[in-house]
Amino acid sequence: MFKSHAGVSFNAYLDRLRIERAIAMLEGGMKVRQAAEKVGYANVDYFHAKFKKYTGKSPSFYKKTGES
User: Fold this and answer.
1) DSSP assignment, residue 43?
2) What interhelical angle do 10-27 and 44-55 show, nearest 10?
3) Are the C-beta atoms of residues 59 and 26 closer than 8 Å to each other?
4) What is the 3-state secondary structure (H, E, C) of 49-66?
5) Average pLDDT, the chain
6) pTM greater than the 0.90 cutoff
7) Tens digit of pLDDT for each residue in 11-41?
8) Which domains are present in the chain?
């Protein structure tokens, strides 16, 4: 039912939302590990893989440059 309304699965929607929030935290100067934990990823390596899948860039790219 969620997919018919949102156009994506719930998990994909949640991942995208988490990544968007993490980007804002990273641009604000938060450390990658802290941002991962705040948005609900206990495993930083898994967060990094999901982040790269959705943005095409590493989390540290956003921390270093502040670009989106």
Assistant:
1) -
2) 100
3) yes
4) HHHHHHHCCCHHHHHHHC
5) 91
6) no
7) 999 999 999 999 999 999 999 999 999 999 9
8) 2-65 (1.10.10.60)
